Amino acid sequence: MPPRYNYAIRVSLIAALGGFLFGFEVAVISGAEKTIQQLWGLNSFWQGFTVASSLIGTVAGSLVAGWPAQKYGRKKVLVGIALMYLLSAVGCALSTAWLLFVLFRFIGGLAVGISSVVGPMYISEISPAPIRGRLAGSFQVNIVSGILVAYLANFLLSGIGEDAWRWMLGVMAIPAAVFALLVRTIPESPRWLVLNGQDAEAEKIFARTGETGITALIKEEHALASQGIKEKLFSGKYNKPIFYAMLLAMFNQLSGINAIIYYAPRIFEMAGFDEANAFQQSVYIGAANLLFTLLAMSVIDRFGRKKLLLIGAAGMFVFLALTAIAFSKPGQGGGPVILYLIGFIACFAFSQGAVIWVFISEIFPNAVRSQGSSLGSFTHWIMAAIISWTFPVIVEGSPQGGFYSFIFYSVMMLLSFLFIWRVMPETKGRSLEQIQEELGIR
Fold first, then answer.
1. Is the distance from CB of 5 to CB of 212 less than 8 angstroms?
2. Range with the lowest mean pLDDT among 67-81, 178-192, 361-375?
3. CA atoms of 405 and 389, how far apart (whole Å)
4. Is 26 exposed, middle or buried (CB count within 10 Å of its CB: 0-12, 13-18, 19+)?
5. 323: closest CA among 332, 312, 314?
6. Which SS3 state, helix, strand or coil, does residue 186 take?
7. Contact at 8 Å (CB) between 151 and 17?
8. pTM
9. Average pLDDT over all residues of the chain
10. pLDDT tens across 323-365, in order?
11. 438, exposed or middle or buried, with CB in 10 Å at 0-12, 13-18, 19+?
């Protein structure tokens, strides 16, 4: 990349560390969930609720994230997110009562929900168009890095004794503290500054990030903002980006990705692996997730968002169907299940995983971007909560539960392929302002 983009890259990578904590928080419960179920004597319903308590917080966080991001700025919200992650990690590790544990998981979920809105939004707003896909995608790279590190930590800590689960959950305090320190060094989003009449400061930041045509860009932002002030997100003017964001977010979770991430060791035990091997297989899942996310990031600005999504949807449909067939005979899936799930994770990481936060942060105008991103994230997380809460109920309620779950996810990916192919627009190589014009919003 040209040297003039160095500052934008550095700032974006710091902001993307929130994604690492996002991924760690999402995945770390997989190593503790069975111990927690036994510790507090939870049935499948309340176990699903305990795991989903973080997601309930995530839904709430994604729903409210737009308001503080719009009022107080993206940077202040990112600082708050770091402190919430730190509180959640320490609180979960030290909890002696189930309700306390659920409360601190909820706080961690709030941080994830707000982070999923504000992190990609901030990176998109500070990134020049030629490298925006890769920089916004760095948030997803950090998410899958956090997932891999969580799985690895779970594997390494699983044999240290009855308090292993506390160490698994508490170790997140270290990266949370690092993020809290680094995020204070980044500037405010220049587009938020323009929206709040601080053009001179915004111009300085745009110049440091390598933007060109800054005067015209600021003038264009003011024109778009003046239109947005007069209209609400649900005025009818923004129906297209709302529709695209909500459908893509729904299909992201209807793939079953969060059920697999949250319950990976349990799924491998269902397939016939013993407990130690189940934790090890989870590490392979995390490694595949990271590898194919990095591959997607290297081509997203060249191939475009839509092509990646189509390739991924086709692959996920096939591998989920094969997993369902393997689970049609409980306990006999064995080796093929790990291959099928790695195939699924590879396809997900290369497509939905890499694209969703980039795409949602791109398609809404500056004046309503925080609300639009919040809506897309809310949709994503409400579906994640439903999928993650119901998964243990389904698989424990029937010997064929694994088959029913994965065949449903497979059918959803077939529908997502049709939606992406026939309906979704391409956004690669366009400035945020050009995207609004092509969607008919100007």
1. no
2. 361-375
3. 13
4. buried
5. 332
6. coil
7. no
8. 0.74
9. 83
10. 888 887 755 555 688 888 889 989 998 888 878 877 887 888 7
11. middle
